[in-house]
Design a protein that fits this description.
Blueprint (H helix, E strand, L loop, with lengths): L3 E8 L2 E9 L5 E9 L2 H23 L10 H12 L5 H12 L14 H14 L4 H20 L27 H9 L4 H13 L3 H5 L6 E2 L4 E4 L2 E4 L5 E4 L8 E4 L2 H13 L14 H14 L6 H14 L4 H8 L3 H8 L4 H14 L1
Antiparallel strand pairs: 1-2, 2-3, 4-5, 5-8, 6-7
Helix pairs in contact: 3-5, 7-9, 7-11, 12-13
Length: 361
C-alpha cells in the first residue's frame, strides 16, 4: 500500500506543499514545491503530484533488481553484446561509435541519468563545431534506442532521458538525379576501366554497390539480357568480408541488361580472364571503392556518389513512364520506399513538362 502525507504551508509570498512518502525500499522521503498563490491551489497540485508519484513508484517496483546499480558503461556493453546477434556488423559499428560519444555517463548508474545529462553532452558536441548536425542527431537517436531497450527489454529504467533532449536539426541532404546526358558525360570521363564498368552498372542497371561487388559471371544471363541479383559482398557477422544475403526480400530480383553493359562486361571478362564462378570485381569491401569512385566523380566535375547513379537510373525510369510498382521491382525497393525517394522530377522531365505546358496553355 502506498503511504504518504501532505503538508501545505505559507512560504515566502505564496504557498508550498510538502509530500512525505515511503519509497520502494520502505524508507520515508520528501518532495516539495512552492510558488502557489493560495493553499487550495497548493493542495490540488499536491494531489496531482501524488497520483504521478504513485505511478512512478509502481513502475519502479517492476524493475529488475539485478540491474538496479548497473552503470551506463556496463549496460552499454551488455546491450552491444545483445545487438551483435541481431544486426549487421556495420550497424553494430555505428552503435559503438554513437555510444562512445556519451562516455561522460560511463560511471553513472542508469537510473540516475536525467535529461540534463544527455542535453549537456549534446550541447558539448554542438559547441565543438567538429560534427555535422546530422551526425549529432544520429548519435542521440542511437543512444535513445539503447535507453528504450533498457526500458522494454531489460527493465532497468522507467523513462528515456533522451525524450526531451533538444538536438540540432539535420539539413536535408541535397541529392539530385543526374540527367541522362550528365550520366553519360560522367561515365566518359572515368579513366580506370574497372571503375568505369562498376559505375556503368550502377547507372544503367540500378544496382547497389554491394550487389555489384557480389556479381559473378554466373549472374549474367546473356541469352535473356538479364542480371540476376541473389547475393551481395558485405561484412559478415564474424567480422570478415564475404558473400551474404541481400538487404531485404525485395532485393532479390532480375534486372534488364542493356546492350552497352553486356558488351562492356564481355570485353572485361576476356581482358581480365574471369572464370564463371569468380567475382567480377575483387575489392575487399565496398567502402573503399565507394570512396575512390566519389573521388573519380568529383574529378570529372560531379559531386555525387555511386548511390546517386542508382538514384538517377530510378528517376529516369519514372520520368519515362514507369510506375512506382514497376520501378520498385527493378530497384529492389518496397513500393512505399520507392514513392518516398523518387516522387520528384528530374531536370529532363521538368523540361518535358515545361514544353507540354507552353504548347497547350
Amino acid at each position: 500500500m502506498f503511504e504518504y502525507k501532505i503538508l501545505t504551508r505559507k512560504k515566502d509570498k505564496g504557498y508550498q506543499f510538502i509530500v512525505s512518502y515511503k519509497d520502494e525500499t520502505g524508507k520515508w522521503k520528501q518532495r516539495a514545491k512552492q510558488g502557489f498563490e493560495n493553499e487550495s491551489k497548493a493542495e490540488k497540485a499536491a494531489k496531482a503530484y501524488i497520483f504521478d508519484l504513485k505511478e512512478e513508484l509502481e513502475e519502479k517496483a517492476k524493475l529488475n533488481k539485478d540491474y538496479e546499480n548497473i552503470t551506463f558503461e556496463e549496460f552499454s556493453k551488455m546491450y552491444l553484446k545483445h545487438k551483435k546477434n541481431h544486426v549487421e556488423p556495420h550497424t553494430l559499428t555505428r552503435f559503438k561509435l554513437a555510444i562512445s560519444k556519451f562516455s561522460d555517463l560511463d560511471s553513472m548508474r542508469m537510473t540516475d541519468i536525467k535529461v540534463r545529462d544527455i542535453q549537456n553532452i549534446v550541447d558539448k558536441m554542438v559547441k565543438s563545431d567538429t560534427l555535422k548536425a546530422s551526425s549529432i542527431l544520429a548519435y542521440k537517436n542511437t543512444v535513445s534506442t539503447m535507453f528504450e531497450s533498457a526500458i522494454k527489454q531489460f527493465e532497468v529504467i522507467i523513462s528515456n532521458p533522451c525524450t526531451n533532449v533538444i538536438a540540432p536539426k539535420a539539413a536535408k541532404p541535397n541529392k539530385r538525379a543526374l540527367t541522362k546526358i550528365e550520366v553519360d558525360d560522367l561515365l566518359s570521363k572515368i579513366e580506370n576501366k574497372t571503375h568505369y564498368l562498376i559505375s556503368l552498372i550502377a547507372a544503367y542497371c540500378g544496382l547497389r554497390a554491394g550487389e555489384i561487388l557480389g556479381l559473378t559471371w554466373q549472374d549474367i544471363d546473356e541469352e535473356n539480357d538479364l542480371i540476376k541479383i541473389t547475393k551481395q559482398w558485405k561484412k559478415l557477422k564474424n567480422g570478415e568480408y564475404g558473400m551474404g544475403p541481400l538487404k531485404s526480400s525485395n532485393s532479390y530480383r532480375e534486372v534488364t541488361l542493356p546492350l552497352k553493359v553486356k558488351l562492356e562486361l564481355k570485353k572485361y571478362k576476356i581482358e581480365y580472364s574471369i572464370g564463371d564462378e569468380q567475382r567480377l570485381f575483387k575489392y575487399k569491401d565496398s567502402s573503399c571503392i565507394v570512396s575512390t569512385l566519389r573521388y573519380d566523380y568529383k574529378k570529372a566535375g560531379y559531386d555525387v556518389s555511386i548511390h546517386e547513379l542508382r538514384h538517377s537510373y530510378a528517376s529516369l525510369l519514372i520520368s519515362k513512364g514507369l510506375t512506382h510498382d514497376e520501378a520498385a521491382e527493378v530497384l529492389g525497393h518496397t513500393v512505399e520506399e520507392n514513392i518516398r525517394t523518387y516522387s520528384h522530377l528530374t531536370a529532363d522531365n521538368k523540361n518535358k513538362v515545361k514544353k507540354l505546358i507552353l504548347k497547350n496553355f
